[in-house]
Design brief:
Elements lengths: L2 H4 L1 H13 L2 H6 L1 E8 L14 E2 H13 L7 E8 L2 E7 L7 E8 L5 E7 L2 H9 L1
Parallel strand pairs: 1-6
Antiparallel strand pairs: 1-2, 3-4, 4-5, 5-6
Organism: Nonomuraea rosea
Protein name: Nuclear transport factor 2 family protein
InterPro entries: NTF2-like_dom_sf, SnoaL-like
């Protein structure tokens, strides 16, 4: 199997599931022991910055961070290499927020790590304004 050709697929499937509001489809993109850093460095949903871990943690992240919002991804580029892919996107929830999301997949084509790079302070400031 050529993983480098598939690395972007779980990311695409995950963004599609989020936009459709399909929790089950989103969770199925992840391995049982997956870790989500969204964003890297922490947020109110990951105060320690240690990542949201496992399917139970991801389900909690969905309920607290995704379900209450109408999330859209405007993907401008996907760069797949090896077992990773970097997705460049704007995520307009209440205002545009640019980010880069790097996912690593396993041999079952499931995400084992997703690292989001975006400015959490900018988002928090806009939400409190």
């Amino acid at each position: 199997m050529q993983i480098h050709r598939l690395a972007g697929n779980p990311g695409r499937a995950g963004t599609s599931a989020v936009m459709a509001g399909d929790r089950g489809a989103w969770l199925s993109c992840y391995a049982d022991d997956a870790v989500l850093y969204d964003p890297v460095g922490g947020s109110p949903l990951d105060a320690q910055g240690a990542g949201v871990r496992g399917l139970d943690g991801l389900d909690r992240f969905w309920r607290q961070g995704i379900a209450p919002n109408q999330v859209r991804f405007d993907v401008t580029a996907v760069h797949a290499a090896g077992d990773e892919a970097a997705v460049v996107a704007t995520v307009p929830i209440r205002f545009p927020n640019d980010g880069v999301f790097v996912c690593t997949i396993n041999h079952d084509n499931q995400v084992v790590s997703l690292r989001g790079y975006w400015d959490v302070q900018r988002v928090l400031s806009a939400l409190s304004a």
